[in-house]
Write a structure and sequence with these properties.
It contains two helices and seven strands, in the order αββαβββββ.
Length: 140
Amino acid sequence: MNDTEGRKRSLSPRLLPVRLQDDGLYPFGATLGSNRNIDLLVPTSMKKYPTRDELEAYWINQLQESVTKSQGDSKAAFFCVAVLIPAKDGKMVPAVIVYLDHTTAGAEDIFYPYWKDERSKFVLGEPISSPAAHRIFISS
C-alpha cells in the first residue's frame, strides 16, 4: 500500500472509531507508525466549551510529543473532535472534524456533518475536505 492509499484508508468513516452519543463525540487523537502500530491519545480532562484554537493547540502539542517518543517511526497523526460548522443555509450544524497530518501525503481538515435519522441512529454526511498546513510533521 502506498502513502496515498494508506491515507485514504485511514480517512474512511467506517474505520474511524466514531462513537457519537447524545452529547457528541469524545475527542481523541492517534499516531500511526510504519508497522501499523497505533498510539491512541484520549484526554483525561478537558475544559468545557474550548475554542477551536485551544483544541488545536492541545492536540498539536499531544501529537508532537507522541511523534517525538516514537523516535521517527510515526508516519501519520490525527485528532478528531465534535464541532459546529455553518451549513449552506447559514445554520450551525454538528460535525466531526478530523485533522490529518501525514509525513509525505500532506495535511488536511475533514469535516463530517452528522445527524440522527428517524431511528435515532447517527449518520455521517458527505465529508468536506480542505488542504491544511502541516502542524505535527514540521520540517526543521
